[in-house]
Design a protein that fits this description.
globular; 284 residues; mainly beta; single chain; 15-stranded antiparallel β-sheet; 15 strands
Length: 284
Amino acid sequence: MNQNMKLMKKLRMTLAVLACCFFAARADAQCTAVNTAFQPGEHVSYDLMFNWKFIWIKVGYAELTTDKATYEGREGYRFSLKSHTSKRADFFFKMRDTLVCHVTDQLEPQYFCKAAEEGKRHTKDEAWFAYRDGTSHVKQRRTWYKPADRKTQEMEYEDSRCIFDMLSILGQARSWKATDFKVGDKVHFPMATGRRVEQQTLIYRGIENVKANNDITYRCLVFSFVEYVGEAKEEKEVITFFISDDDNHLPIRLDMYLNFGSAKAFLTNVEGNRHPITSVVAEQ
């Protein structure tokens, strides 16, 4: 698989998974919550950097936005995550991805869509969410537009726990508190990824000060996204991420460990945040 494709896929998964660090206490089929963390108009930007022979190179950027919206007659929020490779990276691999989801005012997932243009491949993933008899249901569909002729794949899944997509979990989990976590605590959760529902694992590592690309240092909660590989199920670090230790719970830095190297996503700018960013410990 192309290295840039792997890199950008890691970024998308990281921005989604980082929210789940607040997820354990709410893992049931009652999929509503009160929003205390964000407001319409919030806009967060990131630089994506790749380590190439000891040199850090910018290969793309990402933007995460929140707006008010109505879906199927119900008022709520619309989350959007756009990931683009830079012009320099386009020479090797062009990517234009847009993820969108709709949730109700109570942050209940309704619909998710990922439109992906990655090299010569164009796909669209969709997910529709429903809640019946105390159980979460999700119907998913992938449509291929290129390189083959148009075709689709569909699947359905249900779980006694909440099922979220990559963006709705981020929106809801930001309102939860992490004060009950102890270093080493593990969180297990299901996530709809477009074609399947996958079980994921996170580990809380503690608190650390982290400098972003806006020359500000933040106090952050640190979490690891891990996989278990081999017959011995050895723990493999996939992503380390750093979340502002304040009421906004903003992603500050994301460290991604890849088979061919390493990459980082750095926060560059925040606009429209609901709360003061009290996690700042130093500015240049």
